[in-house]
From TrEMBL:
The chain crosses the membrane at residues 246-265, 286-304, 310-330. This is Glycosyl transferase family 2. It comes from Paenibacillus pectinilyticus. The keyword ATP-binding does not apply. GO terms for biological process: polysaccharide biosynthetic process. Residues 221-335 form the GtrA/DPMS transmembrane domain. GO terms for molecular function: transferase activity. The keyword Transmembrane applies. It is a multi-pass membrane protein. InterPro entries: Glyco_trans_2-like, Glycosyltransferase_2, GtrA_DPMS_TM, Nucleotide-diphossugar_trans.
Amino acid sequence: MTILIPSYEPDSRLIALIHKLHEVSDASILVVDDGSGEEYRAIFDSAKEAGCTVLTHSINQGKGSALKTGFDYIRQYGNDDGVVCADSDGQHLPGDILRLTKAVREHRNHIVLGSRQFTGKVPLRSRIGNSATRMVYTLATGMPIQDTQTGLRGYSSDMLDWLCQIPGDRFEYEMNMLLEAPSVGYDLIEVPIDTIYLDDNKSSHFRPLADSARVYFPFLKFCASSGFAAILDFMLLLLLQWMTSNLLVSVIGSRLCSSIFNYVMNRKFVFAKRNGTVIRKSVLRYFSLVTVILLLNYGLLHLFHDNIGIPLIAAKLLTEALLFSFSYWAQRKFVY
């Protein structure tokens, strides 16, 4: 087993963690210096003296990049027992790291997450951030998990090729990993760990605005694409309803036009894969989904507008809100 520790501008807690791990485990330790600079050379030299392999980025490239550097090294020179990633700021206990190494051996081809329970004193920024990403992940995949932002994660060695190909160089890398895992057949397993925040998490290099935007970017792109399609659908619905006074014809006509627009935008910008998706298959899947959503759309509109008497504009807005999350989850899971 290899313990991989990405590190940027660490302090003595990194060395303390290394020594504690050596006391309780014979796992090899790989540290990636993500461009910390000369000021931190002594700390990484101490890590080498403690028996660690240290890889160095000449400039800061981000946590995702540091993890991929470590994964690439392990797949070339490491063992086939798996890898556990831990942070360098002392917030992962050696005992919890060892629990993940055991879980990785027991659950091959799974992503093992060290799941914090967020009990006790948790900084407000961290509590809000974790709650938000849990909600976004659940909306995106339909699979709720407790801790989407944990840095303590374990992987089987045969997952390394995939781990090196996931897009993202900074904190968004770890969210992209969770989003892509279901589509490639990797299940998630959560192992409860202690929730530890030292000095109100001041050592964290997470930038609330810039890095949050990166983490949420896939979902934000979908919101933008769906928003433009919804505006088109809404305008066409009102126009066709005014022209025909037939709700079914109006729903079908507006949905057909907006769906073609939405498919092109989503395939090109939102769910685009590095190796591409076969157009024929994604078209068939997408418009099969469109048919399902069309029926749901008409059924809900008929219920709200014709049966309950809600004005058409309000009924349309309510219907689209109800179908939005379902559409995102279905497109990511089945279409692209």
